[in-house]
Amino acid sequence: MKVLIIEDEERGFSRLKRLLLNMDHTLEILGPLTSIKTTIEYLQMKHDEDVIFADIRLGDGDVFEAFMEIEPSSPVIFTTAYNEYALEAFKSKGIAYLQKPILPAELEKALSMAKSICNKPISNYAQTEKKEMARGKKWRDYFLVNIYDGFKLIKAENIGYFFSENGVVRAFLREGKSVSINHSLNDLEQQLNPDVFFRVNRQYIINISFIEKLTKFFNYKMIIKLYGFTDLQIIVSKERISQLKSWLDR
Length: 250
Fold this sequence. Notes:
Layout lengths: L1 E5 L3 H14 L4 E6 L2 H9 L6 E5 L1 E2 L2 E2 H7 L6 E5 L5 H5 L3 E6 L4 H14 L7 H12 L5 E6 L2 E6 L3 E7 L2 E6 L4 E4 L3 H7 L5 E3 L4 E4 L3 E6 L5 E5 L2 E8 L1 H11 L2
Parallel strand pairs: 1-2, 1-3, 3-6, 6-7
Antiparallel strand pairs: 4-5, 8-9, 10-11, 10-14, 11-12, 13-14, 15-16, 16-17
Helix pairs in contact: 2-3
């Protein structure tokens, strides 16, 4: 059984590797992958691990950003010192959520679970759960944002896209203006109607009503053009294109 470890701390990687091999010396340990960048690069190549152990907070962001760019083909066991990511973890092919310091008994239980399903297809948890939530959940319709002399109420339907850079998220409106939003893109994914908004990569969430066209780009990627934003070109990786097309062609 092949185990890939995503972990940016050498001590954390060494301890996890030691615990795993103590439980099963036949395991083949791969990694560590230490950043969002290296994780995306790895997932873009041919790979055949049976299970992924992934720390959530890496030096250049959350591992969910990499999994949003390229969905992992293997089940994921998340390892973290924090407890606020459990919901997001199980939307990203998570089968277990282990808090650091990892207890051997909990690790052994998670490893046994991975062994039992590593040869079975894993369903797309994120899409399935979003559809289930859509039946009864009230999605966000408005944002109350700060402006220079008070507050302004923004309709979600008037937002063409959300853009995240250096930890700051901005919403870009029909009239060409933008406002700062006090939510991460991960938060917004849980709040926005998935029939209207789609996260195309780790920096952008777009509104379907603003899409003008998709054009081919090199290396099988595509560029999205939005109405009202003539200078904007959003690049979509080839791994996300099929999901985007399915979302559009409903």
